[in-house]
Design goal:
Elements (H helix, E strand, L loop, with lengths): L10 E2 L5 E8 L3 H14 L2 E4 L11 E5 L4 H12 L6 E6 L1 H13 L4 E4 L3 H23 L1
Parallel strand pairs: 2-3, 2-4, 4-5, 5-6
Antiparallel strand pairs: 1-2
Length: 141
């Protein structure tokens, strides 16, 4: 039986445009709660990635390195395989981040940040994606 939180559809803006879905690779329910609260303020849905779930449809994937960082990175490699993957950001304790950064990069992680930086980085990444979507929409018109 999976411990994953049930999947919620992606958030949409007032005009029905899809805002984004954030994937979260963690088993820590406190982390899930904090990330859900931060993402909700930004208008994004969060899907906790369970044992049997894949990452299709995820726009941004957060990987929690707080407990078993090496194990989480191995799990990430299994999830991403050779296929396309969303932008991936890993977070954890400051000293673990320094130690795990090379392994995380090898696993396809674009950014590795300390826990304290995660809310700021998440906000910046979400805002950047929203700006890219606006540009894409305008250039199509």
């Amino acid at each position: 039986m999976s411990n994953a939180v049930p999947h919620k559809p992606s958030s949409t803006s007032a005009d029905g445009a899809r805002l984004g879905e954030l994937g979260l690779l963690t088993s820590d329910l406190m982390v899930v709660s904090r990330v859900r609260a931060a993402a909700a303020q930004l208008g994004w849905a969060v899907r906790q990635i369970g044992r049997e779930e894949g990452i299709s449809g995820i726009d941004l994937l957060l990987v929690d390195l707080n407990r078993d960082g090496s194990g989480q990175l191995a799990r990430l490699r299994r999830l991403t395989g050779d296929g396309p993957a969303p932008e991936i950001v890993a977070f954890g304790p400051h000293m673990a981040v320094l130690e795990l950064r090379p392994l995380a990069r090898a696993a396809g992680v674009r950014r590795v940040v300390a826990n304290s930086a995660l809310p700021r980085v998440l906000k910046l990444l979400v805002r950047r994606r929203e700006a890219e979507a606006v540009v894409a929409k305008v250039t199509k018109a």
